[in-house]
Amino acid sequence: MATWSAPGKVFLFGEHAVVYGKPGIAVAIRPRVFVTVRKSRNAHHAKSPYIDSCFEVMGVKGSVYISSQIPSSSGLGSSAAVTVATLSAINDEFGLKYTLDDIARTAFEIEKKVQKGRASPTDTSVSTFGGLIFISGTQRRRLPVQNFHMVIGNSLVSHSTARMVEQVAEMKRKHPEVCNPILDAIEGVTLNALHHMGDPPQLGKLMNINHALLEALGVGHSVLSRLVLASRSAGAYGAKITGAGGGGSMVALCPKHMKNRVAGAIEACEARAVITGVDTEGARKEKDV
Ligand code: PMV
Asked: What integer pLDDT is reported at residue 74 of this predicted model?
């Protein structure tokens, strides 16, 4: 029996633009998924195309038990975390000798297959390696970890990443003259943020710009707008949609002493707030239960 966990993630900058090879910055956060795998001749696990694919790719059979602190379809990377933790636990239980790079690459291939070609390697990289990650095309770079104080606001409005990605693709097809400059501007914001990672007030301003650009791309939602505005009024440095939008979650970057106030402002909008920070660890072996 082997138990592994993997963290969720939030995009600080660059979601949607990363689908077109532009850079993004994402960070591993504390809610985790825990997966226990046990060798067995009969596969026994919850029906999930991600888990089925993990066993298929690794060429083994086993049973799985999952315990998740990450709400699914909330833009916090739960499918990537499940995939990374399952691959890591299979690797350990069956002594397959995959490296972390192999796990990240295989998890990305599975996400891409299950999501019909629409996935960037961001979620799977962040979940595998932890910390702060800069992604650009197929390149990945770990950035020095910062002591960010973040509040996630889950709008409780469910959304489909595939549908939102398709919606942006359609805008790009129909109105490239409008859509492409927005994607270029998101790239500009991300590259600028890269030079201010140690300066949360400046990052907050850039997050606000990124949020406006995501709304211009058509992936906003009235509940997310409310949460973003409430967070800023409550003292956040900045706040934005995180992930695919159209529902799901937003993230606020806060001064340490403001995070409870910001969380309270989000909860007052009947959304769910989670105060979190950077999780420096990626996939991690846990004690067997
Ligand atoms: O909502 P999430 O966590 O699945 O994030 C989606 C982010 C996109 O850039 C829209 C798609 C992707 O695969 O990067």
From this structure: 78
